[in-house]
Amino acid sequence: MNESNDEKLQRLLEDGNYSSDELLNKNGEAYKLLFAALNKEPEKGLPYDFAAKVIRKITAQQKQSNELKYNIVALGVFIGLMVLACAILTFYGSITWSDVLKYKWIFLLLPLIFMLIQYFDQKLVKAKLFRNTNT
Fold first, then answer.
1. What is the pLDDT of residue 131?
2. FRET label pair with 13: which of 26, 43, 93, 110, CA 20 to 30 Å apart?
């Protein structure tokens, strides 16, 4: 069906002056159903702030994804710096790897403490800051 026929069908349906012979083909019936559906009012509309809620949810998900990436990178950098510090101390200092391994629990707990600090910073401090600026 070309554009002129589409426009002709639309004009016929909008005017309401059409006979059933003009709408015998499937496209005509489809247009008739489409116009009937579009003329009905929705039973229950969306809230006025629906778009704002959707945008807020999407930005929150993006922010959470960015924060997770940041935390993974920060943890990797933190662990890398700890390994680099241990390597420098063993190569240029007077300690050996066996001396470093005596404190293995400290080196295992430091990244965990770092992750907990980051987590609580984001959940408690930043959430409170953003909550106060939005109100």
1. 63
2. 43
The pLDDT-based confidence of 72 (bands split at 50, 70, 90) is confident
| C-alpha–C-alpha distance, residues 125 and 62, integer Å | 19
User: Do the beta carbons of residue 28 and residue 9 sit within 8 Å?
Assistant: yes
**Cα gap 114→78, rounded to integer Å:** 8
Tokens of 37: 């559906």
pLDDT in tens, 16-65: 666 555 555 656 677 777 777 777 776 777 788 888 888 988 988 888 78
Of the candidates 69, 51, 73, the one whose C-alpha atom is nearest the C-alpha of residue 61 is 69
SS3 54: helix
Cα separation, 98 vs 120, whole angstroms: 34
CB 71 within 8 A of CB 115: yes
Buried-exposed string 78-90: b where 16+ CB fall within 10 A, e elsewhere:
eeeeeeeebeeee
Q: What is the pTM of this model?
A: 0.47
The residue to which tokens 């929705």 are assigned: 42
The closest alpha carbon to 88, from 100, 73, 74, belongs to 100
